[in-house]
Queue: 2 jobs
Job 1
Amino acid sequence: MGWYRRLRNLARRDRVDRDIDREMSFHLAERVDDLIASGLSAREAQRAARLRFGNYSAQHERARDMNISTHIESLGKDVRHAVRGLLRNPGFALAATAVLALGIGANTAVFSVVNAVLLRALPYSDSARLVMVFDNFPQQGVDRGPGCIADFLDWKSRSHSFQTLDAAANNRLTLTGDGDAEQIAGLAVTATFFETLGVRPTAGRTFVAGEDQPGRTQTVVLSDRLWRRRYGADPAVLGKTIALNGRPFIAIGIMPPSFQFGSPEVEVWTALTLDPPTRRGPFFLRGIGRLKPGVTLEQAAAEMQTIAAQVQRENPRDYIRLRYPVAPLREVVVGDVRALLWILSGAVLLVLLIALSNVASLMLARATARRREIAIRLSIGAGRARLVRQLMAESLVLALGGGALGVALAASGVSALHRLAPRGLPRLDEIGIDGRVLAFTLLVSVASAIVFGLAPGLAASRAALAESLKQGGRGGDARSHGRARGVLVVAQVSFSVLLLIGAGLLIRSFDLLGRVNPGFQAPPERVLTLVVSPNGTRYRERAALNAYWERLLDRMRALPGVEAASIAITMPPDRLSFTDGFEIQGKPTPPGIDNPAVPVPFVSQDYFKTLGIPLVRGRWFDNRDTQDAPPVTIISEAMARQYFPNEDPVGQRLKHGGRMLNNSYMEIVGVVGDVRYEGLDRQIRPVYYEASTQSTARPMWLLLRTSGSALSMAPAVRQAIRELDPDVPVARVSTMASALSETVSVPRFRSLLMTIFAAASLLLAAIGIYGVISYSVSQRTQEIGVRMALGATSANVRRLVIGQGSRLALAGIALGLGGAFALTRVLKQMLFGVAPTDIPTFAGVGAILGATALLASLIPACRAARVNPIRALRNE
Amino acid sequence: MPKSKNDILQGTLALLVLKTLASRGRMHGYGITTHIQSVTRELLRVEEGSLYPALHRMEQDGWVRAEWGVTEKKREARFYSLTAEGRRQLAREEESWAKLTEGVSLLMGFA
């Protein structure tokens, strides 16, 4: 008949019943006929036939069992029964469901992140074959750095591993026309970029081969977001010319709304013109390619290694130990976050285990209370397996209810995540609750039901019969239940210790990070920072641009409340824009060694004054350093220490780039204090500054030191800039305080999450301890009565109870600390300034948990102390 | 009813039913009962209630197929017939039965 028919018959239960009835009635009817024929009366015949047939209903039942999947039917019955039972105990049901919802919901939330970021394929066609290619700068500890145009051309011409290989570089562009001047983020890409990713535009086209060669008409592909925002989703924008940085670009296509590569802020894609390189530098692009079918990542990496060695040999003065690392695109996108996500998953699993222990404890307590009911059921013939099934049905109902509620909690958690998460979190937009997440929740719910329901269920059904209908039977099973709950509490406490230590370490790291001196002394709330982009045709000439900056800075200084103003291409603590190598006159680097590429901020003369960077020797940039004057530079203390250890650097000369460069040397006119440009947690590196008037790069940051709150000056500043030239957009108005806060946003986020989990676990563990101790007190009322009758004081009794709680907690703390010693090393990457086995943190957590256990035991202890010994003894 | 006869019968009910259907073709449950009774000259009597669970089980296992029909007396009855798999099962059961009886006779003949 097959399981299919048995399943189908579930729906036709009544019909099956009737059929079996008909069949068996027929049999009886025939038998009656025969008996009548042999001489019995009708009534006797009926009776005899029935006797001979046997137990009609039992046989009916058995025949039915053959036809219908009765297991499922009885499961349905069990579930209904379970729901009724839970409704009769709403307190227990609510508590258990709430705890489960917390535990399962937290896991669902974290899994939805893991699902979107780590598990789902990237939204490009056949994304497993996509790789990125980088340059490697060993001296800077930069493993995957940008390459130069010459590098890219070498990759393309010398490798055979790629079906297509493209380059991409971030840029910022001023968009004018059709509205206010606006600064947008763009990505310059080579012609086959979209082909490599396998993404098609929703309208128009993307670049064709050769469009990235110099001298071609400039074309641009728009993002869906920009198209809607600025062009009102008008399809006629295709073919129109739009102005980027004052230059005309023809809009040729529009990408789908979901398309994103790299930064989510990118709104236009322009062609990266591959001007024939005159030197090896600047380094600003990254390679993105698709492996040829049949080529593995290892093969491509090995080939690039060989090519790097060739290029190194051919350009000994530009590179040192050159490597071209190749990495899968997915790893580049999510790599940084992977460790954090796994740790969060572990943490949230611990929270779930603690929650399950709590619920199991509740179940055990309930089972003890229902001993009598269970015993009765067993005695009237319910099979033990059936009974366990019924108890499991209860667990399942609780778990599924908790799971459903947990999904709702997770959904709100995910939307909170979208609002609060640091911007750098990869694939943030893709995080949501999809089918796989729901399936995961179901799985976790069912597993939870088994974990917290099975053991108590088995224990309850086993012991019940033996203890059963004895009056006031308190004996063995209650004791063993109590022991089991004690074990659960120890487990809860140790898990809590783990989570608290994790949170403690992260909090300390975050705190230490926040105290790192960024290198400047201006109060951060009093430094206004904004991006000003004079990118139009008017400012193409160097002289015109410099003149604009002059006017702008004068105008800024004239504003009341502005103490100093400057422009810069790079800003602390982590807005690094430009690095380059250098060569010191008179100190040629030996062959095979080269000076590393270091941050090179281009700054106006008041930059150091604006930020409060101390001058150690020499002078600032000043009015002498005009465009035509001899080029000058200022170096940082770290550079002076490292390259001019026993001499005065002022008066010496250095120049940009490598030895081959044909540019002129700059005279060192000053030494300033070290400033961090690469984040607070990185080591300080040598830096040399160039005067903005003398450099060819385009500064972007405007920095203003204000006498009052910087943000309050913002409207006046905007106004002034607009008055100067309305076509120059202003963007990212903020303060240095904000920048400092943002740079630690990821560590802050991490420690926040861990703290939430740790707090939840501490609460659950405290509840667990309280539950176990107070239950134990209620069981030991008689004993306490005896003790008090024999002379124990309230204090003695309190000490007794607290002692019990402390013993449990101590065991848990010891286990937890031991486990933490072994496990916290997984946090190593995320810690700053603290060791994974930081003793003060461990000690602190131990103390917190000890105090919590004490408190949780205190209430039951006081209750115990108030026991009236006479009544306790009388109550047997 | 003498218990011992029924005990043996429980274990071999399938064999008897299959053989009955093989010999007589399409039959309803009552007919199977009376056939067994008459052919074995009342030596074997099927406990009637246990017949139907067994028949339904055999239907589930695919050894017999069933359909509703009408008897000569114009009553509705469910008729069973042997399937190909049922024939194979019959052969298997006959073989085990032969082995069992031979073993028992050998043991009985010993001593």
Note: The first strand of chain A starts at residue 130 and ends at 133.
Job 2
Amino acid sequence: MSRPTHHLLVSSTVTCCLCCTPAVVHAQETTCTCAEPVRGRVVERFDGVDDAFGLFEASVTLRDGAGKTFEAQTDLEGRFAFEEVCANDAEVTVALERYARTTASVSCGEPLELVMPLAVVEAPEPSQTVTTRTFEEIRDSRTRVTLDEKELDEERGVPLAKMLEKLPGVRALETGTVSKPMVQGMHSNRVVIMIDGLRHESLSWGLDHAPEIDPFTAAQVSVVKGAAGVRYGPDAIGGVVLVSPRPLTYDDATLHGDAHLVGLSNGRQGVAAASLYGGVPGVAGLAWRVQGSGKIAGALESPTYVLDNTSVRELNGSAAVGIEREAWGLEVSGSRVDARNGVFTGVYSGNLTQFQDALTRDTPRGVENYRFDYDLERPRHEVVHSIAMAKGHLDLGEAHRLEATAAYQLNERKEFDITRGYITGPQLDFTLSTGSLELAWIGTFGDAWSASAGAVGMLQTNIYRGRRFIPNYGASGAGAFAWVKREGERVDLELGARVDAEEMTTYQREAIGGPTAPIESFELSYVTPSLVAGARWRVTEEVDASLNLSSASRAPTIDELFVDGVSQGVASFLEGDHTLDPEQTWAATGNLEIATGWFDLRVSPYVQYIDGYIYAAPELDDNGEARAKLTINGSFPSFVYQQVDALFAGVDADLRTRPYRWLELATTASMVRAQDLTRDAFLVFIPPDFIAQDVTFKAATLGPFDGASIGARVAYTARQTRVDLKSDFAEPPPGFLLVHAHAGADLPLGEQSLRASLEVKNLTNQRYRAYLSRLRYFADEPGRSINLRLKYSF
Amino acid sequence: MNTNLRRILTLTLAAPIAMLAACGDPEAEAEDDHGDEQEVITTLTLTLTPQGGGDAVTATFKDADGDGGEAPTITNPTLAANTTYDVTVTLLNETVDEDDEEYNIGNEIKEEAEEHQVFYTGAGIDDGLFTWTTTDVESDYADNTGDDLPVGLAGTLATADAGSGVLTVTLMHQPPVNDVAVKTATSGLGDGEVDVAVDFDITVE
């Protein structure tokens, strides 16, 4: 049987130096001593096919003429880049599981194309070259933006959603210290979060429930924008956040690790993290990784007063161990996140009159008593999220791969309100446990075709203690998916479908009758289908366009179905509706990427029609006046969960240019428009228009330092003018401009390295309130923060 | 697939399912009392006794199932004109039994008298239909440190001529912030958190 021959190709473009002899440009300079970016691509080639396929997560090592080594990993396109390295006499080595380690010389001045044969992996059986690829290696037509390890390192110490704000189209929905990601205007249960391939299960419906993820576990975070139900399951309507840890290093048994130390002046925060990873010397195919992080933060400060009680404590850890054999592999991992967040003292906790009073004030009531300290008092949230997971894969022959993932997640969330002294426990207490199993097959057929099919199963229970808010429930879900893809010379096509079904039984005593009321139980079931049809067209070497048409679905969440009570933080009475149907979204997302030698442009427009969009709208009486509900605390406007037809549309763009070797400019912009078509009203919490510009000066070497940079970033958030005051309560805050500055350098220490960076966020200590922050009714956002980050790696 | 691999896969797949079985029964737990580290105030009662003698009149706000569920019921009082009434305030949590220690929330409030105050406002007072005077102080209920401030769980209501007007009874919980007392001689409505805010329609005949 003939097999396609695979060639490992490293193509690199090295533009000649401009510094060594100014104003002279040489085509074939062999003694350049300056720093030049070395960019290249690690690909797989099939005979008879002109185009090459990028290989993801290949380890690339560059050894420059002076003997210094630099490391990088290829991205999803197989691309890698080394900034500020000396290309003279440089050598690039590429290592990737199942391919032979390959080395190529790089010399300045010549665009170099190297073709290297793939070495056959030694095996006791007659040689088989395994060519199977994992899910993530097969490119898809969706819009995906990524923060690699270096970019994540620049943001370490702040919550995950804040780190992701650097990505176009992603914003953070904040409540003091907790923040959750918003993708193209959608958040909470319309954004799926995946950790290491596992769907994160938590009470994500809460506006102040941040995803319980330790950002230090991430070596890369990608955001897939738009409806992605076929690959990622129900609820993937706004997008998917993929948090990927560093893969286990099966081909390198030496001990490696890194340590982070971060100090943030606002809140006088200290954050520390460390990780160790490696193999077992002498034992092939065994690898492990352990990691931990901790955070102590005191109260944040706005420019004019302390945001009392916005302290944080966090202690997290994770570990993984894996075996990789020629035809199969198994990885077992576990993690625990323990986070305690204080709730700002000035967040109202009374009734409508008190809330309206807070809206008229310029400073929070009682601000004169606010004080900086590290105390974590009531009100506060405490969450512990634990995960245990096992992933295995089996290669069947050369072209087929089976994967299985089994996992258990436990989410324990406790919320402590201000109470009288004799009460010591939490007022809200939820325990959510989820067991899941996923089986998938991925196969490649010939040069161009690949397909996958699989099934998932899930069991979940929620048990509450404390105040009645949402009922206990037991749920089970199952799904099946299939997709097929053709990767051609110029055009990739993808077609897929998935259906998930969920059955849930709820248990809660009836509202009337107290502790002996009969238990009311509902049995609910939902079917959530998804479809995708996508195309990706490599118009030229530099231009890439894709169009993705997809449909995804989301079943209503437990709070949309059953909530019945006052919502903390905003003066409203929320009522759920257990007859709600799932939402079905029809989305078209496009992506245009132009990548030339000196600029990178990406524009992603999208439009999404959501049939049955669920949200809490003010309940209106026959005269169009807002209804109110009376409680012992007073009366509150009543909000009822309703289903409407909604339309979301927008565009994200980012542009990076490098007009000179030492100057890099980056622009990011995003715009979202969202409308409730049924009620002809605007939807709440839609991000206002945003644009940011970064200017960075880079130096190859600066004394003993490498990769030094200094720059500034200006970010403008417009005022949100498309609002419905009945739902928003207060006028949106005015637009604001923030200025940030950053500087950093690497200090190579032989095999190890130390990176230091200094950042000043909100340099001018600007007072502002943000529409996407629930703090905006009560207080200004935090002011200036001077952040110092140190990273030591070995 | 060799037997070792099969064993490994079986164990790893079975483990999460087994863990799940140990994680609780939502139906059984629904019958539980849910831990009750929460307080519910369901009932506010004003007992008004005329100073010259006579039957007491009660005004009640009762939301038996807490927020949500059935709407609350309000019993509005009818008072005699030009009479002064001695008033006592009772606060109950009627979701628990009478002999439960949490039944009489008023007791807990009295123990923490330094952090609570009841305020009496409303159109009825503004229009002069009746006047309120708080007669109790913190030391009536518990040891007092610092200023001996009024509490508002007892007082007198003096009616004028016939008419009707609203009396708003507001219980403010005013715990200290950062060890600085919020309840002071000058603190009022709006300082602290609202625990109870009830409007009574008072008819004076």
Note: The radius of gyration of chain B is 25 Å.
